[in-house]
Design goal:
The complex is a heterodimer.
Chain A: E1 27-32, E2 35-40, H1 45-51, E3 77-78, E4 97-99, H2 103-118, H3 134-141, E5 178-180, H4 190-199, E6 205-207, E7 214-216, H5 232-236, E8 242-244, H6 245-250, E9 255-260, E10 269-275, E11 278-284, H7 297-301, E12 316-317, E13 326-327, H8 330-348, E14 353-357, H9 363-377, E15 382-384, H10 391-400, E16 418-422, H11 426-429, H12 431-442, E17 446-450, E18 467-469, H13 476-489, H14 495-501, H15 504-515, H16 521-528, H17 532-544, E19 548-552, H18 554-557, H19 562-575, E20 585-588, H20 595-600, E21 607-608, E22 612-613, H21 617-627, H22 639-647, E23 653-657, H23 661-664, H24 668-676, E24 680-685, E25 697-700, E26 709-712, E27 717-721, H25 733-743, H26 753-763, H27 772-778, E28 780-782, E29 826-831, E30 856-859, H28 861-867, E31 874-878, E32 883-890, E33 898-902, E34 930-936, H29 942-954
Parallel strand pairs in A: 1-4, 14-15, 14-23, 16-17, 16-19, 17-18, 19-20, 23-24, 24-25, 29-33, 30-32
Antiparallel strand pairs in A: 1-2, 3-4, 5-8, 6-7, 9-10, 10-11, 12-13, 12-25, 21-22, 26-27, 27-28, 29-34, 30-33, 31-32, 31-34
Helix pairs in contact in A: 8-25, 9-25, 9-26, 10-19, 13-16, 13-17, 13-19, 16-17, 22-24
Chain B: H1 3-17, H2 24-35, H3 38-46, H4 55-60
Helix pairs in contact in B: 1-2
Classes of the chains: A alpha/beta, B mainly alpha.
Chain lengths: 961, 68
């Protein structure tokens, strides 16, 4: 079993706490309890002691937070210093002589503990934190044996001598995942500090002083406060004041398994804390290099979907999509599926079938699905949902830098001086990265946001003045080329870098192109809707920053010029020399947990694993030798092409692993028509998703808790996913794919995903050094990992670009064909919210819905007034593709002329409205620009009602006999 | 495969390459050959007559690989 491995030294966050954060500095040597200790300058005496293996008692200190010095339990004696200083706030000095345990210290600590306990309930045996309470531990550590204070004023008892105790505050259960019990609070301020320093939301504060001090959200309860339920305060709390409800219900966990979150592309590491095979809680792992001990509401709390009653746990088949589903054995379902694929190929040719790999599944699973297409079905018709999100990143960065990947690790943000955030909303979409960026903004880094909407990042507490370019949707290329124009014409570029690292002729050509007055901010300001002076200020700020880093999301890629925009971003980074060292770079914020991995693993129809084109004879030969077959040298069909071919009658069978194309892909009517035209649709998923209404075979999937494998996050980091419980449907997803391949005659015999990774390493140069043994040993590894980079590569293109010289490419603006006019005068753009995740299949099946139970249309007050729309009204949203209805919310976060919605709820059907326009290079859909009209309506549209009726028809499961 | 949609996609590709230095028609053909499945190219080549093609797409036609 490989699933019980906990890397050395990790026994749970509370036991391995060093008290104060690590520091960097020159070595300083001191003596603690007679032992010589050498630590970096700036380290606290408390941490130095911990390094030497000595635990100084503490309550308000934790290594996730800066020292605060309030509990006075960590006092020590230092020769030459008066009194007993707090070891957490006292920095080490050369030659210091420290004693951590003397009679005086023991007496003082007991006195402190006695005071704490005098205002704390003594219900330890029935307390939710019993066995996991630092107050309890410290009472033991200091030898507290009695509490001499007579009962008096306190925050513990519900009643005082005469009537109710006015100091007692009842427990707040408003948050679905954790409770706040003020009667157990010792006011150590760890929660308040965690909310500020780690999360950056500043939702918590302290009311009153001294004995009257209480922790407060400043509102009635947690749910109605600014709290985003990230869990940092719960993790920081040393008592049962802030605690997970699951711990109260189940009990303390007995073991922890390090694994990786399956939500967004940040790829946070978590401890899955277990009791038996029951998950008690997910706690962010402090040694996780992507998240450094932080989490968001999704990864930390929203895992209840794994046990949801809607999960399908048996394979099912049906002849026709109007039949009821019939539960069958795996063998029967796989046999039925294989017959469907074979029949299609026999009748319509080998290229009449295809697969969609999942960016939600592991690298190993994705690799197998594309291998199934290429080596077993004999077709390159394989694609993945990256098609609809970051395929332009693949094209743009490969053309300019030579490979499709972000250039940095997330730690790099700690050295950024100017962050440019384009078409991304990190505090909602990539919350843990958003918190890390906010931390840097509070330290003084500059911020430029290029987005039609005023995102929350611009309102970060304690940051300087941000620059916002609220551009008109669809004009990214014009904006970025105008920024390049300013940098070129004002000579703000880094000539030395360009001469050394880039092709000078291509640069000269690009500089001449960008310098054209037609690309000046003044020439384009009317088009893009941003004042020329603001554009110039943004260009100067980015170019002048010692370290400028660009972070971007789907607001860049999901446009008809998505690939051109990625190229424009790469151009800006190269011309300012912001590539190849920490603190800079081009950083695509990937949507799904394993978008990076699914692209790396050869999911695209034109690329073998490692981004090698299928026409590359040498690359093909590697796989032909490994797989004992010949491979097609021609590219296969992409998802939209598959659907087009299906409508045309040329594409008949598809195997879709972990993707819901009917809800997530644009132009729902077209997707539905494509699926309906197929003879054999095999859906492999956790739930009967929207796509499954057109399926003939349903294979039950496994969650990330039920299998081994790896995910690769947005920083190219390969993180381990470890099985913490057996697959509920019997097979892990990689086993199901293998069984399907074998039903088609493949003869595969993998017994563990590590064997699949070994095959990837054998065939893919950038993964050559990757093994499970390496990842277990060092925690995670960033590709390229090979002979020259045996421990992986935090920063790419350090000495030269992957392709050799960096390549500048002209970026002419081409207006999208999706234009506003009298019928459709507004532009719709779409995005995500913190508490829900993409199509919501997982998060809608958790209590996260208390924060977001429906999609809303954001509309500017001016546009709303013109249409007579009030807050909360039902409105009809129509485009040339279709129409839907949802409720409106009125806000000036969007500019006049722009409306915005999320797409988390299937009944909203936002993609009924989006069009089939797509990126010129990759067919990535243009989700971010749709011309629409908005008007008052009475309720759901005809389509929504029809869809609801169809849902009932296509989701029937025959009762078991 | 809808020939109108394929012609539209080809025109979009041409509008990117029309601003690029070098042999633009070859670049259009190379992009299509590298990214379109043979069935898409065949359908496009068989039905390009009568489509409103960008001049670069027309110039690229001889270089787009069809059925041998």
């Amino acid at each position: 079993m490989k699933d019980l491995i906990i890397p050395d030294g990790i026994h749970g966050p509370k036991l391995s706490d060093m008290g104060t954060p690590a520091k960097k500095g020159a070595p300083v040597t001191l003596v603690i309890d007679g032992m010589d200790v050498t630590v970096p300058e700036g380290t606290s005496v408390m941490r130095a002691a911990a390094e030497a293996g000595i635990t100084v008692p503490k309550l308000c200190a934790t290594d996730m937070l800066e020292a605060y010095g309030s509990c006075r339990l960590c006092v020590v004696e230092i020769e030459g210093m008066r009194g007993t200083p707090a070891s957490c706030t006292t920095p080490v000095r050369d030659g210091m002589v420290v004693k951590t345990q003397t009679e005086q210290l023991q007496r003082l600590r007991r006195g402190v503990m006695e005071l704490y306990i005098s205002d704390h309930p003594l219900d330890c045996l029935t307390c939710a934190a019993n066995g996991d309470c630092e107050l309890q531990d410290m009472a033991g550590a200091v030898g507290l044996r009695e509490v001499r204070y007579a009962p008096g004023q306190n925050h513990v008892e519900t009643r005082a001598a005469e009537g109710p105790n006015p100091l007692y505050i009842p427990r707040d259960d408003s948050n679905p995942y954790f409770f706040y019990d003020p009667s157990k609070c010792i006011v150590c301020m760890r929660c308040v500090r965690a909310c500020e320093e780690v999360q950056g939301t500043f939702a918590l504060t302290v009311d009153g002083r001294g004995f009257d001090a209480r922790i407060s959200t400043g509102t009635d309860d947690f749910l109605n406060s600014d709290c985003v339920s990230c869990g940092a305060c719960v993790q920081a709390c040393p008592t049962a004041t802030l605690q997970e409800k699951t711990v109260e219900e189940i009990g303390t966990p007995e073991r922890a398994i390090i694994t990786t979150c399956a939500y967004c592309g940040v790829g946070c590491s978590f401890e899955a804390q277990m009791r038996g095979d029951q998950l008690v809680r997910m706690v962010p792992w402090k040694d996780g290099k992507a998240n450094r001990g932080h989490s968001c509401v999704k990864g930390r709390f929203a895992w209840g979907y794994a046990n949801h009653g809607d999960r399908i746990l048996h394979p099912m088949i049906r002849e026709s999509i109007t039949d009821a589903w019939r539960e069958v054995s795996w063998e029967e379902a796989l046999d039925f599926a294989a017959k469907g694929i074979k029949a299609a190929q026999a009748k319509h040719g080998k290229d009449s079938v295809g697969v969609i790999t999942s960016s939600r599944c592991t690298n190993e699973e994705t690799f197998l699905v594309q291998k199934l297409a290429r080596a077993v079905m004999g077709t390159n018709n394989t694609d993945t949902c990256a098609r609809v999100c970051h395929s332009p990143t693949g094209y743009g960065l490969k053309q300019t830098f030579g490979t499709s990947a972000g250039t940095q690790d997330f730690d790099s943000v700690e050295q950024v001086d100017c962050a440019v955030v384009i078409g991304a909303n990190p505090t909602d979409g990539h919350p843990v990265f958003g918190s890390r960026l906010r931390k840097r903004l509070r330290q003084g880094a500059g911020l430029i946001v290029i987005d039609p909407r005023r995102i929350d990042l611009l309102e970060s507490v304690h940051m300087g003045e941000g620059i916002h370019l609220p551009l008109r949707p669809g004009t990214n290329v014009a904006v970025l080329t105008a920024l390049a124009h300013v940098i070129v014409t004002e000579k703000l570029y880094d000539e030395a870098f360009i001469r050394e690292r880039c092709d000078w002729e291509e640069w000269s050509d690009y500089a001449e192109f960008a310098a054209d007055p037609a690309h000046s901010p003044e020439a384009v300001e009317a088009l893009i809707g941003v004042p020329a002076e603001t554009l110039r200020q943004a260009a100067r700020t980015y170019a002048a920053a010692p370290n400028g880093a660009i972070y971007y999301g789907l607001g860049v890629t999901e446009h008809s010029q998505g690939s051109t925009t990625v190229i424009a971003i790469a151009n800006l980074a190269m011309m300012t020399g912001n590539i190849g060292r920490p603190g800079v770079g081009v950083n695509p914020l990937r949507g799904q947990n394993n978008v990076q991995g699914s692209c790396d693993m050869g999911s695209f129809p034109h690329e073998l694993p490692g981004y090698r084109h299928v026409s590359d004879d040498a690359a093909r030969a590697v796989f032909e030798t490994e797989w004992h077959t010949t491979l097609d040298p021609e590219p296969g069909l992409r998802i939209p092409n598959m659907l087009d071919a299906a409508v045309a009658g040329d594409f008949k069978a598809i195997y879709i692993q972990g993707e819901d194309i009917l809800q997530s892909d644009p132009d729902t009517h077209h997707v539905a028509a494509g699926l309906a035209a197929m003879d054999c649709v095999i859906v492999h998923d956790l739930f009967l998703n929207e796509t499954a209404r057109y399926a003939h075979v349903f294979l039950p999937g496994s969650t990330f808790l039920e299998k081994d494998g790896t995910f690769t996050n947005a920083e190219r980091r390969i993180n381990m996913v470890r099985k913490v419980m057996a697959p509920k449907a019997g097979l892990a997803d990689w086993e199901a794919t293998q069984a399907l391949a074998n039903a088609l005659g493949a003869g595969w015999s993998y017994t563990h995903p590590s064997q699949i990774m070994a095959e990837i390493a054998r065939t893919t140069p950038s993964f050559a050094g990757v093994t499970y043994e390496l990842i277990d040993r060092i925690g995670s590894v960033q590709w390229p990992c090979n002979e020259t980079h045996p421990q992986g590569s935090p920063v790419m293109h350090e000495d030269g670009f992957v392709r050799g010289k960096g390549r500048f490419i002209r970026t002419a603006y081409v207006a999208t064909e999706e234009r506003t006019g009298p019928r459709f005068p507004l532009l719709l753009t779409t995005g995500r919210i913190l508490s829900q995740y993409n199509v919501g299949a997982q998060t809608r099946r958790t209590e996260n819905s208390v924060w977001h139970d429906q999609d809303l249309l954001e509309i500017h007050p001016h546009d709303a007034e013109q249409r007579g729309i009030n807050e909360g009204d039902w409105v009809r949203l129509a485009s040339r593709s279709g129409e839907t209805s949802l409720r409106a919310t009125i806000t000036d976060r969007v500019s006049p002329g722009v409306v915005y919605t999320t797409f988390h709820h299937p009944d909203t059907q936002a993609n009924v409205v989006t069009t089939d326009n797509s990126d010129w290079a990759t067919n990535c859909p243009e989700y971010k620009v749709t011309a629409v009209q908005v008007a008052l309506s009475n309720g759901p549209s005809d389509w929504q009602e029809l869809y609801e009726a169809q849902t009932k028809l296509t989701r029937r499961v025959e009762a078991a006999e | 495969m809808n020939p109108d949609k394929l012609a539209h996609m080809a025109n979009q590709i041409a509008r990117f390459f029309e601003s690029q230095p070098g042999d633009q028609a070859q670049a259009v053909a190379d992009h299509i050959n590298a990214n379109w499945a043979p069935a898409m190219r065949d359908t496009f080549l068989a039905h390009h007559a009568g489509q409103d093609l960008h001049p670069l797409v027309s110039a690229a036609l001889p270089e787009i690989r069809g059925k041998g």
